Amino acid sequence: MSGSTPWRGMLAALCVCGALASAVEASASQASAAQASYQARKPQDEVIYFLLPDRFENGDASSDHGGPDRGPLVDGFDPTRAGFYHGGDLKGVTRRLDYIQGLGATAIWLAPIFKNKAVQGAPGHESAAHHGYWITDFTDVDPHFGTKADFKTLVDAAHARGLKVYMDIVVNHTADVIQYRECPDGHCPYRGVADYPYARKSGAAGPAINAGFDGKDFSKLKRPDWAYTPYVPSGQEQAKAPAWLNDPIYYHNRGDSTFAGESSLLGDFATLDDVFTEHPRVIAGFIEIYGKWIDDFGIDGFRIDTARHVNPEFWQAFVPAMLARAKARGIPNFHIFGEVFDPDVAILASHTRVDKLPAVLDFAFQAAVMDVVSGGAGPERLARVFAADTVYEGGETGARQLPTFLGNHDMGRIGWFLQKTQPGIGDAELLARATLANALMFAARGVPTIYYGDEQGFTGDGDYADAREDMFPSEVASYNDNRLIGTPAKGPRSAFDPQSVLYRRIAELGRVRAATPALRAGRQVTRVADQQPGLFAFSRLLGGAEILAVFNTSDKPIKANVPVEVGSESWRALHGACQASVRAPGSYSIELAPLDYMLCVSEGQP
């Protein structure tokens, strides 16, 4: 034999197995700790990274066409055109989790991943569903992005490292499948309830249909042709899933929305089929659809597309059902926030008060911070937005759950806005103003939301597809010639650079925020807000701690004294050159260069 005895070999094997078992146990313990940690975080504790899977990373080229190559006007894949699929997918997102987490993000918001109608639009004006908002199958992943198994891999991998995953969901509409016989060109003017009521009594103009329907007794609602005559084109009768979505009775069928008045709720959103969300079958159907995604994947939240275009009663039923479903799945801090595309605080807050949405995207913050950092308004403009926080459901506490952002996939990027408002702006100033905007977002109340690519200096050429550049080497000419913030680079390139200047600056802000509870949950008090570009200072107060955030929005240096809590005497810097002590109780001296900021913290007396 080899000189060893059997029992020694067995002992060695036992030692190895024991070591492996200990390693597995330790790994399981770490995973359990990470899971407990991320689930305990409240919505205001997060930093959200919003991305479109199609534009982020191509992890599997075999899914580029969503099946066989049928040509761009059928399968929608054309990486040379801004409005078509470019090849990004869920495997690509999973591959780049290190990059996302390194930026300081704690939650990933994915644009819709559900199966879409690949191409829509009149001949010569087609575009593809790279954005994910033309859904046909609410129960499955779009094959351009991968499979349910790929999604599970992504969610599990994110959770293992303490990252949350938010799904972007749609209730207001489906893809454009239903057509109207009266409108062969596909565009029908909106027909309102007064002129084309659901119930017409005998003798009224037009046929007597659905007599007796009062908007509540849906059992009497038998036909969908009160305004137009809807039909489903041949071959598309089963285009949607679940199957009940193929019945025109579950749609409003009133023609194109004007996005005003009644039509804002009942009209077709740019020809997309507007769902009859008042109907009990629809309410129950969507509760089951989206509840199952929670059950099956353990996701952590929903961003709700076009929330303002759905009747409040739907949300009053849907939101509690989703929160209950999440809690039953062991998800105590499920975050739901709606898109209400309006900068008016009163309008935004009404959707938390009336619709009972837990939060809405803070378009008021976006509009105000853009005015302030561009030099178009003094910081008092932003202070007024914060002063109105009490109008949200839950008051100031509720406002801390509002996702704040600088730009998005619809309106465009912060870099584009700055170039529009400051024609001829130099590179250094552009970087300084973009940095200032991010610092304001990370220091102020709310949930900072980074639009993918902003951390690499993307600026875009405008809104919609012009603001959806590829993170991987692009073939779109109009993307490759864009000006970038913080670098002179141009042309096709992989943009996952953790050393880029904005990535590093945002990552620093993320680290400071993560380590400073007052920046996440502290009460916010405005200290100084100039009416013209100049000084903006506010405190975040939590327990005995005070964080003083000070910003110079002007192009001139500032020296000033800022009021603080009387008990805040000893200070240290989180960012910038903070004085170690107050000049007098309740008075703190600051000095800032143009377009600069500092974050100072006091735990009270020395």
What does this structure look like?
There is one protein chain. By secondary structure, the chain is of the alpha/beta class. Among the domains are: 1-40; 43-170, Glycosidases (TIM Barrel, Alpha-Beta Barrel), CATH 3.20.20.80; 177-276, no CATH class; 518-602, Immunoglobulin-like (Sandwich), CATH 2.60.40. The protein is built from 18 helices and 23 strands. It has an eight-stranded parallel β-sheet. Helix 15 runs parallel beside helix 17. It is globular, with a radius of gyration of 27 Å. The N and C termini lie far apart (73 Å). Keywords: Signal.
State the major sheet. Answer: 8 strands, parallel
Give me the CATH fold name of the domain at 43-170: TIM Barrel
Task: Indicate the proportion of strand residues.
Answer: 15-25%
Low-confidence stretches: 1-32
CATH class of the domain at 43-170: Alpha Beta
**Averaged pLDDT:** 92
Number of strands: 23
The CATH homologous superfamily of the domain at 43-170 corresponds to Glycosidases
Radius of gyration: 27 Å
Give the terminus-to-terminus CA distance: 73 Å
CATH architecture of the domain at 43-170: Alpha-Beta Barrel
Number of continuous helical runs? 18
Q: Helix share of residues?
A: 25-40%
**Coarse morphology:** globular
> Which strand order spans the largest sheet, edge to edge or round the barrel?
14-13-12-7-2-1-16-15
